[in-house]
Every structure is written in structure tokens, then in C-alpha cells.
Amino acid sequence: MFASLPEFEPGLAGEAGPRALGYIGVGELGPAINNALATAGSGAQGLAGSLRALAQRLQKEAGVDPLKDLLPALGGQAALVAEPTGAAPYASLIVDGVDDEKAAEALASLQGPLLRSLGAAGGQVPSFRTTEVDGVPVHSVQVSANVDLSWAIFDGKLVISTQPQGISQVRSSGDNLAGTDAFENATKRLPDRVSALVFLNLDEVLGLAQQAGLAENPLYASLSEDISRVGSLGLAVRGSDDELQSELFLAIHD
What is the pLDDT of residue 73? Predict the structure, then answer.
């Protein structure tokens, strides 16, 4: 998988909130996925086969082939981010270097098949609504109590989030993940150019886990003092046709 990802300089941590639970960054998202599928071949099974089958179904239902119409419009780096809230966390996919017009046209065409899929699961068929968040049109559909699937395109970026709050975060100009000690300490010793960058804010993740009852687990209780010393984790992956190199760094509290 990582062998098919181009090397890039991660630059989207500034779009994530300062308390982000995790961050996964890759370069040239659309072309990288298409390249991976091409490398796997037409008879591929597993994830590659599922993506091909989905693309064929969407092309039949909506006249849109994501592999040809959407992915080429997503030419820049991308980041998948998990953010905490007062309730359930939300996840956002942020893609830079987007062809605004082509991506918007493809995503608008995919809304119908998505709604039909949600309706087929039972219950009332939902509908997309359009609101404005910080001056940007946001298209949303309530999938469940905790998922208000939303997408918006602005300033050459595509943001898809499980809550409109994810789009507000990217639009904001306040504090961000890139400026935090947790991110800096976990990533500053990693290479500038990578095939993928992974960051985990273990302080935040363990805090949520403890609220959910992990502190009552005997095994965790016996290890909690050691675990709590690890503040954050950074992982850099570089791939080629011949090898895969990984560098892991743990930021330890004094």
C-alpha cells in the first residue's frame, strides 16, 4: 500500500484543532488511490476489489465513476483527523489541491445514490440540506444521532466530516494542531518528506478512554502510571518498490 504513495511534505496539521485525537496524512490522495488500484489489477480482491465494485455501481446508478470523475480532482495531500467534542468525537477528511468545479460536480451527483443506500437500510429516506458555515455552503445529511455527514469545497480544499463542526474547524483561524507541543514533540525528529504521517495525541485519547470506564480495567490500572508518561506518538512511513521504512517517536512527559 505505502509503496504506491508518493513522498510529500505534510502540511495540513494547521487545519486540525489543537486537541485533535489523531492525524493521518498522505500525499496526492486521488492519483495515489487510482495508482494503487491499477497496480492491484482488475481481478483484485479485498479493499481494491470492493472499491472497483463500488465505482461500477455508482457509474451505473448516477453516471459518475469516482475513479475517473472524482479522484483525479483530488490531486493534493490529504489528512484524516479525529477531533474530540463534549459528546462523541467526529472525523474529518481534508483534501488540499482540489479542482473545485470537478469535485463539486462529482460529489453532487453522488448524493442521490447515497440517499438511496441510506433509505434501503430501513426507515425514512433522509435528504441533503444546504446551510452556510463561515460563509461557505455546506451540504449535510443526518445519517444517525452522532453522524451528520457534511461536505464543503472552498479555497482549493474538500472537507468531508461526520459533523459540520469539522468544516468550521478548517475554516477557523484560531489555534491548531500544528502549533501544539504534543504535535511538535512527536514529529520534529521525523523526516520532512514521507509517504504517510501518523500522529496520536495519547493524552487526549487516554482521557476519553478513562471517561468511558477504562480506568476500572485491572490491567490498565496496573499499567496506568507507565502509560500516562507517554504524551503523544509520531510515525513516519516511507515506501518504495523495494522496501518500506518506518520511524516511530514517542514524546515522554518529564
Answer: 83
Which residue in this structure is represented by grid cell 518528506?
A: 193
Instruction: Please give the helix or strand (H or E) that residue 250 lies within, else none.
Output: strand 244-252
166, three cell numbers = 469539522
Instruction: List Cβ neighbours of 231 (8 Å cut-off, separation of 6 or more).
Output: 182, 185, 186, 201, 202, 203, 251, 252, 253
Confidence check: pLDDT of 88 > 70? yes
One-letter amino acid identity for 247?
E
> What per-residue confidence (pLDDT) applies to 151?
95
Please report the sign of the dihedral spanned by the C-alpha atoms of residue 84, residue 91, residue 25, residue 44: positive
Mean pLDDT of the chain: 84
pTM: 0.85
Tell me which amino acid residue 184 is: E
CA–CA distance, 70 with 93 (Å, rounded to integer): 15
The pLDDT assigned to 250 comes to: 92
